[in-house]
């Protein structure tokens, strides 16, 4: 599996991919501009054939690191292969290509990452909030998120009155 | 949104701005209309809102609006130690809590590297409880589905039999639905004295009842006519949409994580994986999905029997056995990313963890709910069907809104 990945990905990303074996499944870091090409190749290549996108995770590394991440968990049903792809984004302007043209399941999962982190998926046809209300302020899962005081006349901020 | 006939009060305005519809009534063609279904509607199985653009009786487009039951699971998880997240995991898929707990503890144990040390008795107990809960969950799916399309009696039958399961689980864990029974590294408590016998009695009682349910609902002519050839989900589309569980198997792919990943003690247990065959219509229709669920109940009964056999003979109760012996006092996994998945009644439940190795709380804990992903295929398979069939299709997806919205 490792050799196939190196063989398939090296011409695409210009160098041999660094496979991080501390993670389960093994992870590879991909740069922002290569993600769509890499995913397309992994989906179509006859010995990789990652036909299932299990999970898209958004992640915020906080103010000090000043980065965000998008993590793709791929799975190949015929070969029983797992792979984790990681993309690191700048925190000021988190933008990444949508993979909806490859896996339709990315539709809602990318909307969720947008909803929670404000990561913009370029090329997504319908990037709206999915779990939070449309007029909610801020992105709740960011590490520096502050709850708004009031939402439509309802107090949001929780005050601990027991102390 | 004139269909709601809201006066332009503040509250009404707030409703429209917080969850606006996708379609603009000004842009509709003369024969089109917008129908709003839910979020409070008995056949949407919870707080699911469907915005339907229809041409008379024929549906042109369905837009699901979700998030009415969002309880910030992932935000809570980032502020809680690993063992305190388990009650929150229970509340995601509230009709199959044992299965969700099983997936979660599996993930944390893998991060700690103690998977191999867990005693077999604990694993068999976990599988026993998870399979009991799988039957309860499939009963809800089959019973409420029958009620959606007009079969009232089977609903009461499955609720009666489900109550027996819930009483068994309550006896073991102390609560009816939200158990907090499986702990990281062990169990809350060993199974109660006499549980195995009662469980055996229940299995003996259940078997003829399943045959009855089969003949009154699954093989019923009216039920077949309402579900066969409706909501056909082709296999390649199912995979592309990330569909898992009985829906994927209903589309004809023999894919069950209990076999594929071979986690826990499932490799030692003998059971079959039923798949849809298109017996009553097209492969992957609503009838196939329901039939697969029904067959899985039979398989779960087989698994329960084998677990009871092991729990009374090979790994039987001893005085020295302590189900909490391996429960770590402090859970602090090494820095890593881990994705774990397990077969829930609805499909693949996945957890993504990132740990930094310095704190007792996860840096990120993402839940990939099978209901969330399975629901996303709804607009695709409802294009061009009749409105009455929309209810049949939504019911056949078997979504639990607690897990869709988390």
From TrEMBL, chain A:
Name of the protein in question: NADH-quinone oxidoreductase subunit C
Enzyme type, top EC level: translocase
GO-annotated cellular components: plasma membrane
Principal location: membrane
Subunit (UniProt): NDH-1 is composed of 14 different subunits. Subunits NuoB, C, D, E, F, and G constitute the peripheral sector of the complex.
Functional note: NDH-1 shuttles electrons from NADH, via FMN and iron-sulfur (Fe-S) centers, to quinones in the respiratory chain. The immediate electron acceptor for the enzyme in this species is believed to be a menaquinone. Couples the redox reaction to proton translocation (for every two electrons transferred, four hydrogen ions are translocated across the cytoplasmic membrane), and thus conserves the redox energy in a proton gradient.
InterPro entries documented for this protein: NADH_DH_suC (IPR010218), NADH_quin_OxRdtase_su_C/D-like (IPR037232), NADH_UbQ_OxRdtase_30kDa_su (IPR001268), NADH_UbQ_OxRdtase_CS (IPR020396)
Highest taxon, organism lineage: Bacteria
Keyword flag Plastid: no
Matching SUPFAM superfamilies: Nqo5-like (SSF143243)
Keyword check for Membrane: yes
Molecular function GO terms recorded: NADH dehydrogenase (quinone) (non-electrogenic) activity; NADH dehydrogenase (ubiquinone) activity; quinone binding
Alphabetic keyword roster: Cell membrane, Membrane, NAD, Quinone, Translocase, Transport
Localization per record: Cell membrane
Residue intervals of the NADH:ubiquinone oxidoreductase 30kDa subunit domain: 29-150
Family (UniProt): Belongs to the complex I 30 kDa subunit family.
Topology in the lipid bilayer: Peripheral membrane protein
Catalyzed chemical reaction(s): a quinone + NADH + 5 H(+)(in) = a quinol + NAD(+) + 4 H(+)(out)
EC number annotated for this UniProt entry: 7.1.1.-
From TrEMBL, chain B:
One Gene Ontology cellular component: plasma membrane
Alphabetized InterPro entries for the sequence: NADH_Q_OxRdtase_suD (IPR001135), NDH1_su_D/H (IPR022885), NiFe-Hase_large (IPR029014)
Annotated membrane topology: Peripheral membrane protein
Keyword set, alphabetical order: Cell membrane, Membrane, NAD, Quinone, Translocase, Transport
Subcellular location(s) of the protein: Cell membrane
Reaction(s) the record says it catalyses: a quinone + NADH + 5 H(+)(in) = a quinol + NAD(+) + 4 H(+)(out)
Family classification: Belongs to the complex I 49 kDa subunit family.
Quaternary structure and interacting proteins, as annotated: NDH-1 is composed of 14 different subunits. Subunits NuoB, C, D, E, F, and G constitute the peripheral sector of the complex.
Descriptive protein name: NADH-quinone oxidoreductase subunit D
Naturally occurring in which organism (per UniProt): Chryseotalea sanaruensis
């Amino acid at each position: 599996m490792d050799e196939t990945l190196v063989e398939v990905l090296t011409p695409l990303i210009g160098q041999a991919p660094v496979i991080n074996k501390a993670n389960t499944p093994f992870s590879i870091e991909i740069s922002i501009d290569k993600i769509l090409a890499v995913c397309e190749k992994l989906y179509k290549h006859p010995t990789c054939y990652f036909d299932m996108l299990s999970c898209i995770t958004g992640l915020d590394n906080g103010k000090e690191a000043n980065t965000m991440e998008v993590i793709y968990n791929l799975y190949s049903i015929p070969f029983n292969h797992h792979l984790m792809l990681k993309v690191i984004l700048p925190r000021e302007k988190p933008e990444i290509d949508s993979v909806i043209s490859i896996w339709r399941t990315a539709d809602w999962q990318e909307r969720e990452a947008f909803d929670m982190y404000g990561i913009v998926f370029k090329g997504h046809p319908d990037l709206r909030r999915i779990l939070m209300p449309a007029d909610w302020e801020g992105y709740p899962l960011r590490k520096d998120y502050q709850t708004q005081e009031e939402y439509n006349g309802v107090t949001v901020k929780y005050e601990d009155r027991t102390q | 949104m004139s269909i709601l006939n809201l006066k332009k009060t503040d509250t009404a305005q707030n409703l429209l701005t917080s969850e606006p519809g996708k379609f603009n009534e000004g842009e509709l063609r003369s024969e089109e209309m917008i129908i709003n279904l839910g979020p409070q509607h008995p056949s949407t199985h919870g707080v699911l809102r469907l915005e339907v653009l229809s041409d008379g009786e024929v549906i042109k487009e369905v837009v699901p609006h979700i998030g009415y039951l969002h309880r910030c699971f992932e935000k809570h998880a980032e502020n809680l130690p690993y063992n305190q997240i388990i009650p929150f995991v229970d509340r995601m898929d509230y009709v199959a809590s044992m299965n969700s707990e099983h997936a979660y503890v599996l993930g944390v144990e893998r991060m700690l590297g103690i998977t191999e040390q867990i005693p077999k008795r604990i694993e068999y107990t976990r599988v026993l409880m998870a399979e009991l809960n799988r039957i309860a969950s499939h009963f809800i799916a089959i019973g409420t589905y029958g009620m959606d399309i007009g079969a009232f009696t089977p609903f009461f039958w499955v609720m009666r039999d489900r109550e027996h399961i819930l009483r068994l689980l309550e006896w073991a864990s102390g609560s009816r639905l939200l158990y907090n029974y499986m702990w990281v590294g062990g169990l809350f408590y060993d199974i109660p004295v006499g549980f195995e016998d009662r469980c055996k009695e229940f299995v003996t009682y259940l078997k003829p009842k399943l045959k009855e349910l089969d003949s009154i609902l699954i093989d019923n002519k009216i039920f077949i006519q309402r579900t066969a050839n409706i909501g056909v989900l082709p296999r390649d589309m199912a995979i592309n949409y990330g569909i898992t569980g009985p829906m994927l198997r209903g589309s004809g792919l023999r894919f069950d994580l209990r076999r594929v990943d071979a986690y826990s003690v499932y490799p030692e247990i003998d059971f079959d994986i039923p798949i849809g065959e298109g017996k009553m219509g097209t492969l992957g229709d609503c009838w196939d999905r329901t039939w697969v669920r029904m067959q899985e109940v039979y398989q779960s009964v087989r698994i329960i029997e084998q677990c009871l056999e092991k729990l009374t003979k090979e790994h039987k109760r001893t005085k020295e056995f302590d189900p909490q012996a391996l429960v770590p006092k402090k859970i602090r996994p090494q820095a890593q990313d881990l994705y774990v998945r397990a077969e829930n009644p609805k499909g693949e439940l996945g957890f993504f963890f990132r740990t930094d190795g310095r704190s007792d709380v996860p840096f990120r804990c993402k839940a990939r709910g099978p209901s969330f992903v399975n629901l996303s295929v709804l607009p695709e398979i409802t294009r061009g069907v009749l409105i009455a069939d929309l209810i049949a299709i939504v019911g056949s997806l078997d979504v639990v809104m607690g897990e869709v919205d988390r």
